[in-house]
Predict the structure.
Amino acid sequence: MIAAPDKVEHWLPSGQKPDPVELSVVVPSLNEEITVGEFVDWCHEGIRKAGVTAQILIVDSSTDETPNIAIARGAEVLRVPKRGLGRAYIDALPFIRGKWVVMGDADLTYDFRELAPFVEKFRAGYEMVMGSRFLGSIEDGAMPALHRYFGTPLTTWILNRIYGSRFSDIHCGMRGMTMDALSRITLRSQSWEYASEMVLKSARLGLRIAEVPVSFYKDREGRLSHHRRMGWLSPWIAGWLNLRVMLVYSPDSFVYKPGLLLFLFGVFLCVTLAGGPITIGSIQLSLHWMLLGLMSAVLGYSCIQLGVVARLMHQLRPVSTDLWLRMLNYNRGVVISVLACGAGLALLVPLVVEYVNHGFRLTGWSHLSILGLLFLILGFQTFCLTLLLEMSKRVISDQSERRAQ
Ligand SMILES: Nc1nc2c(ncn2[C@@H]2O[C@H](COP(=O)(O)OP(=O)(O)OP(=O)(O)O)[C@@H](O)[C@H]2O)c(=O)[nH]1
Ligand SMILES: [Mg+2]
């Protein structure tokens, strides 16, 4: 047993210098003494076959012999505190010297003797090279049937629908990125969900993506995957974290677009019924439908605002975000808000007059006043959104100034 690392330490094999290289093989490890030695040998073979200069960087938080074995076989070891798989990749960033990066597991489940296809795609100009076990091969017993025939194809299909991408295996752990692309996607995930974050940000940023077939083997005798080591709840927690990252980075699909539909539906109902009930054949649309329209429009508008703010924060759709910022600049936003609130108040005037004239009682329903309410609410919300966008613009420019310094 060795002590768990409590700070970041970079170990170089004796005689090796931290020179620039073409390819960095970056692989986290946590107590993998059964497999890590052979794994580093596989990497050397893969690098030789690919004909590149390379570093093998094992990002390690082990308390067993893993780091000593890795360095003895000629890998660099970055000792990092155990803060999760995603965090291990983030910790590794300053120590990556290659212009291309291939990542994966140190457990001999992915075949790192086959690095050449990744290098070929990088040379052809691709920015993300995703391994695909479905295009390659899956050894019997390497993947539970539920994941192989249901979970992975379904989640891959959903992500492809949302992002317009063409992945065949979004959960494949062996994947590559240019260092430039890796810096641009600014990984934030600390744990298992880094894998989804990487895939969906690459798709959203429109990186040039290629897939290469990879071989996937079952765990070696005696080796337990970390999910097994952590107990039956671990895969569920991983799924939960992956879902969170998908929801956080996909406000367009979950909030913005449904919001737009709700908003249009609501406004249509309110405007159509502003003059009073409508009868089409045996169907009557009256005040209750208008109230439904009011609710739908307000809810939809809130979703749109949330979607716009989320886009602004994750910075994955710079073009459409810029459009919103230009469309709703401070002056225009305030003018629109004042006009909408003014129109809303004007539409409410007849109701107030009637109320006062009838001794502070209302004698009937006023459809027009519901439309007035809608205008008032939308006007006020637009004012709030304008301020929020203005504030976000300042925060973003502060951040980019700080980054540039
Ligand atoms: N540095 C570091 N490495 C980790 C951590 N958790 C897992 N790893 C390593 O990350 C790689 C992937 O872990 P596995 O246990 O193989 O998990 P998996 O392949 O995603 O899951 P399975 O499909 O169940 O095998 C292995 O090389 C682990 O040793 C961690 O917290 N820190
Ligand atoms: Mg594994």
User: Anything to note?
Assistant: The two ends are 43 Å apart (CA to CA). The mean pLDDT is 93.
